[in-house]
Amino acid sequence: MDKIRYYSDITRQSYSERKFLDLIEKRIRKHLRIEKSINLKNKYFIINDDTANYEVMIYFLKRILPEKLDLITITTGEDLKADDREQIKTEHLETYLADRMDFFMKNKPLETLEKTISPLRVVSEKELEVITRILSIDKKIDTKKNKFIEELQETYEQTKTSLLKSFDNIAEQVSKKR
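Predicted structure:
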């Protein structure tokens, strides 16, 4: 009997269901630890936009920070800054890169670069699709892509991960100046 294997386009390897989810969880944990973007003393909110991104984000936050995180869920249209909470965004790798690329292509001042808490930015859209299949989430993935980045990725496989590291380094340099 053949076991179902799930492919990660970032590692370029196939995994069992459990190993695939563990891989993504480990990657998100590492990202949160290195970025120090979530402090358990702070309060956070996440917008329930009825997408697969939201469902996956909640799944991993509950696995990584069960009962420890002061997080409220709000729906679109509610007061977004209630109780001075910070927003945890549900954007994945492609959306995060497209937003950052737009920012730099429009030549906006670096000081206006918003520091975001986006734990899913280390997860590609294809991996998000796999996770939704594994977790039986029947919702649409919210995505935004940059044609230039997608074309580069077809030729040079590690373009997206390299750009992510570059944008993270730029954000770190900007935060040091503030």
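Summary: The chain has a mean pLDDT of 85.
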